[in-house]
Amino acid sequence: MERTLIILKPDAIQRGIAGEIITRIERKGLKIVAMKMETVSQEKAKYHYDEHREKPFFQELIGFITRSPVILMVVEGIDAIKTARKMSGATQIADAIPGTIRGDYAMHTSVNLIHTSDGPAGAEREINNFFKKEEIVEYKLDSQKWLYPSSVLDK
């Protein structure tokens, strides 16, 4: 099983659609193993967006993610990273197709509702930025036997 970080950004919280987005994630079959709400500190935001530090929009990213609370989640599943990214839709809103979270709800690329890790190394780094190991809960989700063939679960 793979894990990834999902952030429901301030606009998802302020618009009152966080619950609907969480429902989509659960209905898809991704297992939430950690979740909390917090206002992201400047320090955590700068670390999170470090790859964009030299880009002209870096301060805008920091200002946005720290402006209001976010919901942070660690989700788990087979191909969780790829699945979460496909569900989110393209970062560029004009390219986000209907049926994706951004395609259905976002109007501008700078205000795009959700963050998902871009790969295994990024997921590990981001999860460790926002969660302590003891905040991640290990448990069996009974519905997994209805989501994956037994041959996959037995591995």
Characterize the structure shown:
It is a single chain. The chain is α+β, with helices and mostly antiparallel strands. It has a single domain, classed as Nucleoside diphosphate kinase-like domain (Alpha-Beta Plaits), CATH 3.30.70. About 40% of the residues lie in helices and about 15% in strands. It is built from nine helices and four strands; from the N terminus they run E-H-H-E-H-H-E-H-H-E-H-H-H. Strands 2-3-1-4 form a four-stranded antiparallel sheet. The N and C termini lie close together (about 10 Å).
Please describe the topology of this protein.
Elements: E1 2-8, H1 10-14, H2 18-28, E2 31-38, H3 42-48, H4 58-65, E3 70-77, H5 80-88, H6 101-105, E4 114-116, H7 120-130, H8 144-147, H9 150-153
Antiparallel strand pairs: 1-3, 1-4, 2-3
Shape: globular
Q: Compute the number of helices.
A: 9
Largest sheet: 4 strands, antiparallel
How many structural units, i.e. domains? 1
Number of strands: 4
> Could you report the average pLDDT, rounded to the nearest whole number?
95
Order of helices and strands: EHHEHHEHHEHHH
Strand content: 15-25%
Rounded radius of gyration (Å): 15 Å
Stretches with pLDDT under 50, minimum 5 residues: none
Order of strands in the sheet with the most strands? 2-3-1-4
What is the level 1 CATH name? Alpha Beta
The proportion of residues forming helix, as a percent range, comes to 40-55%
CATH topology: Alpha-Beta Plaits
Q: Kindly report the name of the CATH homologous superfamily.
A: Nucleoside diphosphate kinase-like domain
Q: How far apart are the termini?
A: 10 Å
